[in-house]
Amino acid sequence: MEETILELKGIAKRFGDTPVLNGISISIQKGEFITLLGPSGCGKTTTLRIIAGLETPDEGRVILNGQDVTDTEPNKRDVNTVFQNYALFPHMTVAANIGYGLKLKKRPKDEIKKAVDDALALVQLEGYGKRMPSELSGGQRQRVAIARALVNRPSVLLLDEPLGALDLQLRRQMQLELKALQKKLGITFIYITHDQEEALNMSDRIVVMNGGHFEQIGSPAQVYDSPRTSYVARFVGTANVLRGTVEAVEGDALRIQCAGGCAGALRRGYDFAPGAPITLAVRSEHVEFTKDPAACGLPATIREKTFAGGMLRITLELSDGSTLIASRHGIDMDVRTGEAVRVTWAAANAVPVDVEASEAK
Amino acid sequence: MKTPSVPLKKKKRSSVWVTLIPLYLFTLLFVAGPLVYMFVLSFQTRAEVWGVVNQFTLDNYKNILQPVYLNTFVESFKLAITSTLLICAIGYPFGYFMAKLSPAWKKRVMLLLMIPFWTSSLIRLYGWIIIFRANGTLDKLLMGLGLTDSPLKLLYTYPAVVVGMVYALLQFMILAVYSSAEKMDWSLVEAARDLGATPLKAFLTVTLKLTLPGLLSGVILTFIPSMGLFFIADILGGNKVVLVGSLIQDQLMKAHNWPFAAALSVVLMILTSLMISLYKRITHTTELEGIL
């Protein structure tokens, strides 16, 4: 895991007058499963296409296996792509699709046949070689696309929202299979998705993208538990974001004034002076209710209770009119709509975000 | 509930049949009828003065075996193949790149392709006479540029006929190729490049294969007419280039030998159908863009 396989250095790209990427840099290790996570239009696909060589960056370099491949043609890069629409050749059988890359490399026929059979076995499609892509289901086409890219044993496999067109159940299953496949083959995967759950499930590292730049790069736990910016906090796991003022700094603990109440947070390596503005991210599952009027907390009114996906979602309105979401496991809890409550959270569960001054940690 | 549903179904079926009657009538009257008439005519005898005598004979077909007529068939095929190859060479890239233009430019090019159709093809051919004749536009241009010293006298030559054929039939090829290239999923080319194909290899293994139906229907749309476009050979070839089409026309209009003209047409039709089926067999196409 020490060896760097791919490096992006200050990649910038604009289409006409629209900047798509604003100087992104990252270093990716061999065998890593890395996910580019972001909403559509954030530049994920362009990043992938630049790595594949299907797009040339306006600025910056792409270093693959220690070599500058920025101006290298896509067919000369040791990188393969699983396209969003699969892009299977409709006029070729499944076997011909998978063997396409090897045939171009002029490998002997029996070697190609063996490699194709192995690849089909790898994606659990034994015996499908003679079918045409049009005779396959969406999930099967997906597998063929993966097999076609993997059979060339690239240094890096690029996957552009490969599960986007599949239904939820198949998606979950394919997530597990893809992850297992990646571990087994030890190939670096660069995976694009806009689904945060998918990213958290599969990745070694997640790159959260927004408007053509990287908001945060980190392990799923880092991105989820310690978001750097309010954008990351909202996008990954939909956290509550509140603005307030630092009232007091007591060692690592902060006392914060916000929304007509008081809240706690940890400093997390940042420096704060009393009176400084602060933005906090608090996950809905960490929002608690207190009956103790002396405790530190925010006055709120319960506006709505909904039950979805095994979670009870409670929408609260704070005294400054902003909305706060709390969630609980289970179908109901002892609160009624319209009731006034006090919400609070453990200081460790409130993360200061959007702190630009000190990049400590 | 069950009993009334039966006549209702019957009614529906008969109404479908009724709507199809015009189609059947049209086909019988204008497609099958003339063909049968032509076939029968080809076995009849020519009358002494005018018209046809209803007497069975195979002489019309025997006549075709004369070297002079056989040669006409060979010449016609040669010309059709030459023109079709040239049309492919020009029309395929044209249609291919047209499909890659921006929507606004696609419309403009399409309009330019359509404009010539607004004028009679005969009048457009006379335009070529002005260009090709001795001391015509082309000669003056070439001599003005100092490329030639004397007029080339291109009118009434074989190349002039080929140019006329290409000019008259090129649009069909362009539109056929365009319609299949337009439907191309260009991400397939990217996939091929990603998997290690050079631009040329990606074109040969993916783009060409996927636009082949368009190219093939273009070939058929240009090959068949170029066998029979007698007026092009007449106007641009004078009497030097005699094609099956001109032969049939001459037999019909000048020699008034209708049975022989019919026999020639039948043979031409059979040969053309054979060529097409052979072509389809070789290229393994079942679906053709735009036609069939």
Compile the SSE list and pairings.
The complex is a heterodimer of chains A (361) and B (292).
Chain A: E1 4-15, E2 18-29, E3 33-37, H1 44-52, E4 59-64, E5 67-68, E6 79-82, H2 94-104, H3 109-122, H4 138-150, E7 156-160, H5 168-185, E8 188-193, H6 196-202, E9 205-210, E10 213-218, H7 220-225, H8 230-235, E11 240-250, E12 253-258, E13 261-266, E14 277-282, E15 288-290, E16 298-308, E17 311-318, E18 323-329, E19 340-344, E20 350-353
Parallel strand pairs in A: 3-8, 3-9, 6-7, 7-8
Antiparallel strand pairs in A: 1-2, 1-4, 4-5, 9-10, 11-12, 11-14, 12-13, 14-20, 15-19, 16-17, 16-19, 17-18
Helix pairs in contact in A: 2-3, 2-4, 3-4
Chain B: H1 2-41, E1 45-46, E2 52-53, H2 59-64, H3 67-99, H4 103-114, H5 121-132, H6 137-144, H7 158-182, H8 187-194, H9 199-228, H10 230-237, H11 244-254, H12 258-283
Antiparallel strand pairs in B: 1-2
Helix pairs in contact in B: 3-7, 3-9, 5-10, 7-9, 7-10, 8-9, 10-11, 11-12
